[in-house]
Design brief:
Distance between the termini: 24 Å
Order of helices and strands: EHHEEEEEEEEHEEE
Strand content: over 45%
Number of domains: 1
Number of helices: 3
Radius of gyration: 21 Å
Largest sheet: 6 strands, mixed, barrel
Oligomer: single chain
């Protein structure tokens, strides 16, 4: 279980291409992108109204301040609106949070979404929930931060390239016991191949406290891999009402999950 420091923030965003989500959809519109996760995160992180708790502020006043949605100005969307994040995993066979494996003999496609338990700490409270990846940043390639000279215990030196990589996740608050969602589909090989190549996921819900967190980790350099990578994970915490699996190429809905 990871322990993070958090910033308490709440915000919502616009849906891409003007498409408003409906839980009654029979198909997801082709090209639907949902709400812009990075836009939300950027606005959230710069919000002056949602600063940390002051030592001269009571906990009750602090809670009222950060949950007063009337103070948050949003274009074309009210603060109590549902957010929808659309994600198409890449290389899902090897992903930390997703697997999709097909057995041609039984014609069974197993798709799994894995969650990771996380503990968030702040000056005023501790909150636990689970984290599910929702995608890499739009500009997901490694960004160079320069180089430096490094050496190991034996005196071998290398020029180390320092880089930054970002991705984003939802922190799911309303079913903390979730560890893995499994979906079993009975489909012929051609259909299984199509689904694996075009698998897409919708996360539907509303933001809840603590609303926002930044998780930072790193990959340390070695002699054989002289690269020092800082990994930033931008997290929005939510109560999810639905998770959809669908074909991103056709919009066909494969399965839906609703927490009990």
């Amino acid at each position: 279980m990871k322990t993070l420091s958090i910033v308490f923030i709440l915000i919502f965003s616009l849906s891409a291409f003007g498409q408003s989500f409906s839980s009654d959809w029979q198909k997801v519109p082709v090209g639907f992108q949902g709400d812009d996760f990075e836009q939300i995160y950027k606005i959230v992180s710069r919000s002056p109204n949602l600063k940390d708790k002051s030592e001269f502020e009571t906990t009750a006043d602090y809670q009222r301040r950060i949950t007063d949605l009337s103070k948050i100005a949003l274009p074309n969307k009210s603060a109590d609106s549902v957010l929808v994040f659309a994600y198409r995993p890449t290389r899902i066979e090897y992903s930390r949070f997703f697997t999709a494996k097909y057995d041609a003999d039984t014609q069974n496609l197993q798709i799994s979404i894995t969650a990771e338990s996380v503990r968030y700490l702040s000056k005023s409270e501790r909150v636990e929930f689970v984290e599910i990846m929702t995608g890499p940043a739009k500009d997901a390639q490694l960004k160079s931060l320069g180089t430096y000279e490094g050496s190991n215990a034996y005196g071998t030196t290398r020029t180390i390239e320092k880089s930054l990589m970002s991705y984003h996740s939802v922190g799911v608050s309303n079913f903390k016991s979730l560890q893995r969602l499994n979906f079993a589909l009975s489909v012929p090989p051609s259909k299984a191949k199509e689904i694996k190549e075009n698998l897409a996921i919708l996360y539907v819900g509303k933001l809840v406290t603590p609303f926002f967190a930044l998780d930072a980790s790193s990959l340390k350099p070695t002699i054989n891999r002289p690269r020092d990578v800082l990994i930033g994970n931008h997290i929005l915490t939510m109560n999810l009402s639905e998770i959809w699996l669908y074909n991103g190429a056709t919009g066909e809905i494969i399965s839906k999950f609703k927490p009990k």
